């Protein structure tokens, strides 16, 4: 446990030194919230909550997809993966520390966003709404970290991984009800949005969980991850 705690501390410390990562975790999400809420939500508290939960899940998706997968690719490219396999403690502890550090960063980013929403729009979520958001965040971190690892296993090169992850990320967020109810505005996208994994996460965060869709995605990603793991062992 001490090893995981120390590993998490150093992973967070390393993350905080990366200006680009800090920008997309702590500056970009509040900026998007302020702009969108002032344009479309000054007299619409319901949209402000809708937007707030969407941007929280945006942060979860971004940090989970880009952080975990990219780091693993870098380990393979730099040869660090061989080093980690011969160090005194289990490599899995290092991966757990990496995962916990991203969870901590995401929760700190969310607290920042909640504080800004309260200051700018006097928006405060109820306890039940906060629980829904927390459950959505946990589910999102799990699913998109797993998806990031799958992409990392598939690419093996940082440039390929980044390109594929970018394509996946922007497809997921723009074909979803993240910023506005796209499925209501354009019925043509309903089927696509319904199978988007972000949709299942957003529904949890907004208090209307679709557990069947979530379970299907968890099983699907586990099967693909297991396939890559078995293939790697052969």
TrEMBL record:
Membrane topology, as annotated: Multi-pass membrane protein
Residue ranges constituting the ABC-2 type transporter transmembrane domain according to the UniProt record: 8-207
Localization per record: Membrane
GO cellular component terms listed in the entry, alphabetical order: ATP-binding cassette (ABC) transporter complex
TM stretches of this protein: 21-40, 52-73, 93-121, 133-152, 164-182, 211-230
Assigned keywords, A-Z: Membrane, Transmembrane, Transmembrane helix
Protein name: ABC-2 type transport system permease protein
GO molecular function terms listed in the Swiss-Prot or TrEMBL record: ABC-type transporter activity
């Amino acid at each position: 446990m001490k090893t995981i705690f120390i590993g998490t501390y150093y992973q967070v410390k390393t993350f905080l030194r990366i200006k680009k990562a800090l920008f997309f975790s702590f500056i970009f999400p509040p900026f998007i919230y302020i702009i969108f809420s002032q344009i479309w939500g000054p007299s619409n508290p319901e949209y402000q909550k809708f937007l707030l939960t969407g941007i929280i899940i945006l942060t979860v998706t971004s940090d989970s997809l880009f952080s975990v997968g990219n780091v693993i690719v870098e380990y393979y490219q730099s040869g660090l993966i061989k080093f980690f396999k011969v160090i005194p403690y289990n490599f899995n502890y290092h991966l757990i520390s990496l995962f916990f550090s991203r969870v901590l960063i995401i929760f700190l980013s969310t607290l920042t966003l909640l504080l800004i929403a309260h200051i700018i729009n006097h928006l405060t979520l109820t306890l039940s709404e906060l629980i829904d958001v927390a459950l959505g965040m946990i589910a999102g971190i799990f699913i998109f970290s797993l998806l990031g690892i799958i992409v990392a296993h598939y690419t093996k090169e940082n440039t390929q991984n980044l390109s594929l992850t970018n394509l996946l990320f922007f497809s997921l967020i723009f074909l979803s009800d993240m910023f506005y109810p796209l499925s209501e505005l354009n019925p043509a996208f309903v089927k696509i949005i319904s199978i988007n994994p972000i949709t299942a996460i957003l529904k949890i965060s907004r208090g209307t969980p679709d557990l069947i869709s979530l379970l299907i995605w968890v099983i699907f990603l586990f099967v693909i991850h297991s396939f890559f793991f078995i293939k790697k062992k052969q």
